[in-house]
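Researcher: Dear colleague, please comment on this protein.
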Amino acid sequence: MSAQQWAEQALQSFDTVVQATSGFRSRPGQRRMAEQVAHAFSHAQLGKVDADDEDAPAPERAIAVVQAGTGVGKSLAYSVPAIATALARGTRVLISTATVALQEQLVHKDLPALAAQLPQPFKYALAKGRGRYICKLKLERLAGGSDASDEDQPDDDLFADEEAEERAKRPRHESEARMKFYASMADALSSGIWDGDRDTLATPPEPEVWSPVGAEASSCTGRHCPVFSQCAYYERRKELVAAQVIVANHDLLLSSLGARLLPELDNCLLVIDEAHHLPSTALDQFASEADLSRLTWIDKLASRALRIGQLMEVEEIADIPNHSARLRTTLQDTARLVTDLYAEQLKAPRTGMGASRYNAAARYSAPGMPTRARVPRGVLPAELVEPLSQVAHHAEGFLTALRAISKALRSEMKDKPDEARRLSTLYAQIGALAPRLEGVHTTAALLLQDPPEGGAPAAKWFTLQVDGEYIVVKAHASPLLPGNTLRNHLWSAVRGAVLTSATLTSCGQFDFFLREAGLHGDDAVTTLEVPSPFDYGLQGTFVATETQADPKNAQAFTSEMVDALLSDLAMVESGALVLFTSRDQMRQAVDALPTAMRSVVLVQNTLPRQQLLATHRERVGNGEPSIIFGMQSFGEGLDLPGPLCESLFITKLPFAPPDDPVGEARAEWLRGAGRDPFIELVVPATAIRLAQWAGRAIRTEDDRAHVYCYDKRLVRTSYGQLLLKGLPPFTLERRLA
């Protein structure tokens, strides 16, 4: 079939599904999006290219960037053409969403409904990271169910959070409760009541409880593991192999590049939903950090590596004592230098790290509140270059020895399957700590990295925090431009893709998103803006309230804003959502609530999210008023149709936090190049966030809502006019507070 025939067939499938959908409403914008998706996926040239044929033309790529307003029905518009085209072409669809919750909605709701309507059957599966599944071998050990001999058991607290060893030991009752919990999980797993997925537990455990038993690549021996046939993670992997449609998330997509967990990107059709999250996810994925203070793990890893290396007769272990000792020393030297060089920013004593006792720690910042020192222009002080170079050198040498030990262990497992449990335990002893060594090496290398000529430097910074009696100094580094990272690591491999979200344009243009996503100037990219089918002018009113106080004067503005907000909240008769830009702002509003209103307000984090939303729905369903106070995480992905959100309150324009070190470094770089970071970076990012927040108000064709914003900059400044341009076309009202 030709590309045109594939596209026509995909659209025919789309039309068939839409017509068969109960409660169908004609949406021209939805079909226009489906056409764009079908065209992109039909014209992308998939499969390997003959690398030896220098005269062969480059494979055709096709990437569609589609903004689909609320109510367009974008899930159906991309899934039907994508699946129909994939089935016709004998390939697979990889859908990446922003969160596990959105993945589960697709897998448990949208795709089953679609499978019942498409004439050609297809299988689908949910792909989650390894860490969300239980490691049965670890669980057996911690629950007391392992049959391994004592000498084969790991040393104490092998799989536990090693940092906890440097704090006070847990109370006896807490340890006993944790062991009972592990035993109950082991029973549920062995009886088949539980499938080993953390997300399917009735009450998902806290990270510090889950971490010791969660699966992780560094300590996994795969098919050589003695409980491989009962592994929850690999059971899910089998489902992926058989599926034509795989639903992943952005974190997994980027973290598994080159790992063969997901379909090869040059031979599948990629859909990135909620694509506005992709740039920030990329920065998170490719950033790194290293603890310069708590270093007992180095000695423990060296001890394990030497013991196991001797058992395996690995020659490379001869260098481990030198590398581990020098690594520890140079990390300590680096920590001393950092606290000396950045004493003012970190509020560290000039005497360096010698005062690591409680009385000296009291001179630092409050517990839980780290101080930070950013490296200007990404240029390390000369004093740090040599010690960090030594850190990178010795970390690499240590890693080389660990790789040799791991290779020997895997070879031994292959040759002696009857000793799988003992060898897997030894492998895990190395793997439990190896990621820390890798993190140290990656961070040091990125800190030492010089910016390319004319290019952006990496963001580099150090933090200091008091943790009990300890002073913790960490080094951090991150790429500065997500677009460069995505272009090099993701788009270089992709042939056919669709990126979609309700908010991809900023101030009416795609340019900002395309730059952030690494697609600006890419000839393979086409863009399409599909407006919402909602009549925002009729269905919604945007009330711009102008305070006397300047929003930049936080104290005066918050006081005035809270007075205006409480006056408006008194008029709420059904469901309402109030979005705050800081915890302190929300706290002041809560403190100011009159007694009669306190029982009506539900505050984020006072209840689990799902319980809070269920309470809100129950109250509104009973005809009672209910008001949710929330922050950024309630500003998107929250669906409260009809009376559940008839009033939406935006307390202040949602500018990014001013203390983001990557944002600071990027603004510094832009200013150095004679560019304006506020207009080029801050305003476009705020426009997308504000559009997301405002999008909570109108969710269906029948909704009616008022949106209130108390930040006068929205109507009084030139950039505010740009922000307004990026909002849905509500009827605008202006008033004084």
